[in-house]
Each structure stands twice: as C-alpha cells, then as structure tokens.
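Blinded run. Sample ID left blank on purpose so nobody reads anything into the name before looking at the predicted structure. Input follows.
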Amino acid sequence: RIELPDGIPAAKALGATAQLANGFGVSVQQISQAKGEREDWLTLRVTLKVPFTGKSATGPLLTADKVNLWSPVPMAVSERGDVMTVDWFEKTALFGGEPGSGKSAAANNPLLAASLDVTADFYLADGKGGFDLSPFEPIAQMIDTDGDPDQLLAILRHVWEVVLPGLKQTVKD
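Blinded prediction complete.
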C-alpha cells in the first residue's frame, strides 16, 4: 500500500500504470492498481511473472460435488490462487466479444454451476444454432439447439404459462 504525496489523488495515480511498470522494470500486465481505503492511498501489486502465460489452475467447479445457487458459487481461481465466488441469486450475466473470443465457453461456466445444483431446472435455447448447449441436453427440461425461433417461443410460453404459475402456487402453499 502506498500513501500518495499531498495533492495527488488516487484517481490520478491509477492512470500511471505505464510509468509505474517502467519504474519497476516490468511489463504493464504485471501491474495491478486499486484505490485504497483512503483517497490518498493506492494499493499496488507487481507480479513476478506475466499473468496468463503459464498453465491455468483447475477451476473449483470441476472438483465440486454440488452447488447451491442461493449461496456464493466458486467460479474461478485468481492469479494469486484465491477462489473467486459469484453470488448468482437474482443476477443477470451478459457475455460479449468478437467471434472466437470465448463467449460461449465463458457462458458455460454459470451453466456448469447451475447443473451442479440439483434444484435447478434448465430451459435452454441457443440462438445461433450451435452445439454450445449440447453437454446440458440430458438435464434440460426443454432445449433448442437449432436456433429455431418457434422452438424458443414454445420454451418461453411453457415457462410463462406452466412453470411460473406453478412456482407462484408453490409459494402460496
């Protein structure tokens, strides 16, 4: 943790990654900066190696027996080796990027987590008509892997007309 000189706010120092990397004699990718607890503090981490160049750690979902989506879910391992969790309850995720950038692989991580929760039901549709959802087909209540708009509409209607009213009734009971 660095206490900044008077008159230099953390926001200004956060833009100096290239200068800090130059001063430490490392690449920019090896510098991690964050604001400290106070406005005049900066947390700085300099790694000894360039991140993401070695063998990646095994994800915690691959060794999990089961998952509870109502609790934080172990999703990844940080570059420091810490298990990173995500609280998926009442959350939405959006995966964006150019073709081939790994959007489908990234989206399969929360699906894998949900597949490890025995209380989760799967209603899946692949709008581009690919094979990304195929591993989840055996556990899906309904699935469209063809990118068929009519099949997607049928899934949405089923969830709206059958599943949601059933959940509402269960909550009343």
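Unblinding after everyone has recorded impressions. The longest strand covers residues 41-46.
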